[in-house]
Predict the 3D structure of the following.
Amino acid sequence: MSTYINSLNWRYATKKFDATKKVSNKDLDTILEAASLTPTSYGLQPFKIIVIENPEIREKLKPFAWGQSQITEASHLIAIVNFTTFGDELIDDYLANIGATRGIPTEGLKGYADFMKSKLTPLSDDQKAIWTAKQTYIALGNILSAAAELKIDTCPMEGFDANEFNNILGLTDKNLNTSVLISIGYRAEEDQTQHYKKVRKSKEKLIQYI
């Protein structure tokens, strides 16, 4: 655990990446596997993860992220996109996956399916979009932590025009929305942010026992 805490202390929101250094396919796969293992509400994973490697697409996106250099200079750009709406199919697909993975008949899961549908299907589209967007941030945390363990730098990013990103990435007609971005790669030597002391609330102020 001390190694894990050391990794979290090591990481920071990298502002300038070394564009000449690339994350290996093996390390990228490890980070993406960590994302896929993210716990989500009911286990439904109501989002997709898009790895944006194409430099032309990233150049198109950059102006709509306020020109931030991380968009184009990082080794990879990851977008976690949430479902803006869904129906019973989200739950039915999940139950089918449970049945196939665990080798059990889905008929025995009908009660669980009905319970999930009673809680989620009646939600408005706005409520569904808010709920699915919240799930993306759990995956974000796993990506940041996994990358830190590999000594790969990251920068979580909310500063972008989601509507423009959706248009460029072809998400609008697919009921998907760009929720959060993560640039990953290796810090540039001239990135002064790496030398700043990490500022966090003290545990006494942050944590309460009752």
User: Anything to note?
Assistant: The longest helix spans residues 125-149. The CA atoms of residues 75 and 185 lie 5 Å apart. The chain has one domain: 2-82+130-206.
